[in-house]
Specification:
CATH architecture of the largest domain: Orthogonal Bundle
Distance between the termini: 28 Å
Shape: elongated
CATH superfamily of the largest domain: Winged helix-like DNA-binding domain superfamily/Winged helix DNA-binding domain
CATH class of the largest domain: Mainly Alpha
Structural class: alpha/beta
Radius of gyration: 21 Å
Length: 251
């Protein structure tokens, strides 16, 4: 993973990109990607069914260690813990890890457990189950909002590809993708304006500057490297417009 630039550098570079419409609000949406902590066989628990119904992406872990390992490789927006199926010790360890990562936490508490609830768990949000899928979605998004601010302002999501414009992170199907800063800029620019064709000259002057001594071959090299990192035979994002340049395509 590349080293993120300083706040001043980020402000300067963002200002340059704002001029050409780098941020396209209509394409910026929030689709939370969370971790569900539960110990249920089959993956068809009521929580899993509800999350699928409301369109929240999730991965399941059944213990604190697997959650910790997941966080080392995948960018998670929040964690949802079913305290009716995991031990108190597991819940405590997961919550401790979430606080270290500044990750929003939601606890699903079965109604039968309410009288014995341990207030020391202290999650960001608490929901009694069974509940409606709509309430579950609202609780999860509320927890994310409380820590991250207004949803969706700085994340470009197209299919399985997510580009976090604040954290300078790219994930594909939840897994982090290691990009150089120029690769990140190039991908973010094209993905924020899907369908728009950029000439090689426009990309070169926008991202490298008018005084850059290299030729447009530099753009081709970076496009090729990007393709090797975010595309495969079943997933294509970057289209070559022959003798012109490139554009980001959406199915």
């Amino acid at each position: 993973m590349f080293t993120a630039p300083s706040i001043l550098e980020r402000w300067q570079r963002r200002s340059e990109l704002d001029i050409i419409g780098f941020y396209s609000a209509k394409e910026v949406t929030l689709v939370p990607n969370i971790c569900l902590i539960e110990n249920v066989n089959g993956g068809n628990s009521s929580l899993a069914v509800d999350l699928r119904e409301i369109g929240i992406e999730f991965q399941v872990c059944n213990e604190a260690d697997s959650f910790s390992d997941l966080c080392d490789t995948v960018a998670m927006d929040a964690v949802l813990i079913d305290v009716g199926t995991v031990t108190r010790q597991c819940a405590l360890r997961v919550l401790e890890k979430a606080r270290q990562l500044k990750m929003p936490s939601v606890l699903s508490l079965p109604m039968d457990f309410a009288d014995d609830y341990d207030y020391s768990l202290n999650p960001d949000e608490l929901i009694l189950s069974p509940s409606t899928s709509k309430e579950l979605g609202l609780r999860v998004k509320q927890a994310i909002y409380r820590l991250a601010g207004p949803p969706g302002e700085n994340v470009v999501r197209i299919g399985e590809l997510a580009i976090d414009l604040e954290r300078y992170e790219v994930t594909l199907s939840g897994a982090k993708v290691a990009l150089t800063y120029k690769e990140f800029q190039l991908l973010a620019l094209l993905a924020s304006n899907p369908g728009r064709v950029y000439t090689r000259e426009a990309l070169l002057s926008t991202l490298w500057g008018y005084d850059y001594l290299g030729g447009t071959r530099t753009v081709d090299v970076h496009i090729r490297r990007l393709r090797s990192k975010v595309e495969d035979s079943d997933r294509v994002y970057l289209e070559t417009i022959w003798n012109v340049g490139y554009r980001f395509i959406v199915d």
